[in-house]
UniProtKB/TrEMBL annotation:
Keyword Lipoprotein in annotation: no
Organism superkingdom: Bacteria
Coiled-coil regions listed in the entry: 17-44
Alphabetized GO MF terms: chorismate mutase activity
Keyword entries, A-Z: Coiled coil
EC number annotated for this UniProt entry: 5.4.99.5
Name of the featured protein: chorismate mutase
Family matches, as Gene3D superfamilies: Chorismate mutase
Residue ranges constituting the Chorismate mutase domain according to the UniProt record: 18-108
Gene Ontology biological process: chorismate metabolic process
Length: 113
């Protein structure tokens, strides 16, 4: 059987595509591991939020502290060494802040009921 050049191109494409898919899968597995680590850190963060919430509640302070949020954002922007720019890091953390405030409200409702 004689292979034509077109057959070789298709064969090489399939081999290259397989290698690419294997590389992607390996990288995705690394991302999956990082996601689990992030989830673990978020869980630890939520425990600290609970502690802060109890103090704030005892002192009759609001859950939302805009000065604290800005202080965190400023520190993160200063130390950001990732490929994400400051606006993108800000978006990620604003989502975390929002979830933290929602958590504090939910915890307060739990205590009140």
């Amino acid at each position: 059987m004689v292979l034509k050049a077109s057959h070789l191109k298709i064969y090489n494409f399939k081999i290259n595509r397989t290698k690419v898919m294997q590389k992607l899968e390996a990288i995705r597995q690394q991302i999956d591991k990082l996601d689990l680590k992030l989830l673990e850190i978020i869980a630890k963060r939520s425990t600290e939020i609970d502690k802060i919430n109890k103090i704030k509640q005892a002192e009759r302070q609001e859950a939302f502290d805009p000065n604290r949020e800005q202080e965190i954002l400023n520190r993160l922007h200063k130390h950001n060494k990732s490929l994400y720019n400051s606006a993108e890091i800000g978006s990620i953390y604003k989502a975390i802040f929002k979830a933290s405030i929602m958590l504090q409200h939910r915890l307060r409702e739990k205590v009140e009921n």
